[in-house]
Design goal:
mainly alpha
Length: 257
């Protein structure tokens, strides 16, 4: 998949869907497997690569928080990010390895469908409260990391499950969203590094197309971030995920037959 126009279109989707709790990775993999006829492994590599631009948008948007993190002026936040990232790796790495063994597009469609429905159900969990981010215990942060690791599975929304967990733990919404964003940066960096280390980096990405993809995802992601987050808080994405997941399962059954 080296067509620059196709990469640009998928980059726009990533820049938009990253801020909505519907799994941008699941949407990308579904399109690449069913429309572009890619194998599940390469499709997952492309989906991971598309996250670099939106990760940079998060870095730029929350640059003051990351300056504090790297300057050592906020030791508690640093510990929380490191703990969550470590436990994310414990679940994400074996799951990522297992998904790469998939050879059936129908099986991937079914997996995406089940995971989207799971995301939809998670989004229905009640939550929200007055707790500050810094009131979280390290055990809660570790569990959050383990949960975030499952987002490597296409169809599981990373932002959806992490924010939902934090709201269930009675964090206020602003802190839950902010911490979820901060955790996305080491998670994406880790996934990209692991993808490159294992030799699974997208073969069709040239230096020029890589720059185009990153610029598009960064620009679209940064410009739409605040608007789409406000929209996401009002819209019923639980029902949307369940409907989309059901359609994905139906697609899998039809293709299987």
């Amino acid at each position: 998949m080296a067509d620059l126009l196709v990469l640009a279109i998928l980059s726009v989707f990533q820049g938009l869907f990253e801020w909505l709790p519907i799994s941008s990775e699941g949407v990308s993999v579904f399109l690449m497997v069913n429309v572009l006829k890619l194998d599940p492994g390469p499709a997952l590599s492309y989906a991971i690569f598309f996250h670099i631009g939106t990760m940079l948008a998060v870095l730029f948007r929350f640059r003051s928080d990351f300056v504090k993190f790297f300057s050592g002026n906020n030791g508690q936040l640093a510990r929380m990010i490191l703990v969550a990232t470590f436990f994310t790796a414990l679940t994400a790495i074996p799951l990522m390895t297992a998904i790469r063994e998939f050879r059936s597009g129908e099986l991937v469609n079914a997996l995406i469908g089940v995971m989207l429905i799971t995301t939809g159900l998670v989004l229905r969990l009640p939550g929200g409260g007055l707790r500050s981010l810094y009131e979280l215990k390290l055990a809660e942060v570790a569990l959050l990391g383990l949960i975030q690791g499952f987002a490597i599975i296409p169809g599981i929304s990373r932002s959806g499950v992490t924010v939902s967990f934090l709201l269930v733990r009675k964090l206020n919404e602003e802190h839950a969203l902010k911490f979820s964003f901060l955790l996305s940066v080491p998670a994406v960096l880790g996934a990209v590094f692991l993808d490159s280390f294992t030799g699974s980096f997208p073969k069709g990405i040239t230096p020029f197309s890589a720059v185009v993809v990153i610029l598009i995802t960064f620009t679209v992601g940064y410009v739409t971030m605040d608007l789409l987050l406000r929209f996401a808080r009002r819209a019923n994405f639980s029902a949307f995920c369940i409907i989309l997941g059901t359609l994905s399962i139906i697609t899998a059954i039809i293709l299987w037959i």
